[in-house]
Structure formats: structure tokens, C-alpha cells
Amino acid sequence: MKKELLPNWSKQDQLKGKRMHRVWEQFFSETQKAERGQAHSLPDRSEDQGLSAALAKHEAALLSYPNVIGVAEGIRTRRGKPTGEHCLVVYVNRKIPKSKLRASEVLPREIDGVPIDVVEVGTVEPLAL
Known about the structure:
The chain has 2 helices and 4 strands; from the N terminus they run ααββββ. By secondary structure, the chain is an alpha+beta fold. The chain has a domain at 46-120: GMP Synthetase, Chain A, domain 3 (2-Layer Sandwich). It has a 4-stranded mixed β-sheet with strand order 1-2-4-3. The longest helix has 27 residues, at 11-37. The two termini are 13 Å apart. The mean pLDDT is 85.
């Protein structure tokens, strides 16, 4: 018998997750439509290479900031909606106002010309199998 793993999310968290899912589905759907409408040419991968290089070079330093639990290449979000701008996404347990952080604890806005987006994900725990 297959056991379903369910998160222990509150109703509010579940609704927020469903809204986020819809927003990203819409973003990817619109992106695919736009790509189909463009002439087929080789995409410029220099931006992706810059992201990868910045991630490889600075991942350990970014992970050393307090509250940071992960770093990845991704797409910037503003007010919960993806903008399409490629960036490094820094995942934190929770966002803390700059006024409550020491200067050395504030993440940079960009690194090597690559923008940084800070995303609050809450506590990350392994699922019990």
C-alpha cells in the first residue's frame, strides 16, 4: 500500500501555496506562448553562464549568512509574482528587517553583477518515510 506524505501546513499556508502554484503556472504558460511566437534562433546562454559562475564562486559565502538555508539559480519574484529576471535565489527561514540585522548580516543586492532575490521558505525538515 502506497503511503501519501502530506505536509503539516495550516489552511492559510495551503491557500498561499495554491495561489503561488497558480501564479507560476501562469508565468510558465505565458513564457511558452511567447517563445513559440519568436523566430527559432539559438538562445543567448551568456546570462546562464554568469549565473552559474556566480553561484559556484559565492555559494559557500552566501550560505554562511545567518538564517540562509539554500542558494540556487532562479527567477526573481516581486510581490509574489515572477518577473522573468534571472537571478541567484537565496532561501532563508524567515526574512528579517534590515534594521534588526548588523551590517555584516545583510545580504548583498547583487554579486558579480548578478541580482540576488531573498525568498522566505520557513523551516525545512526532512519528510519521514
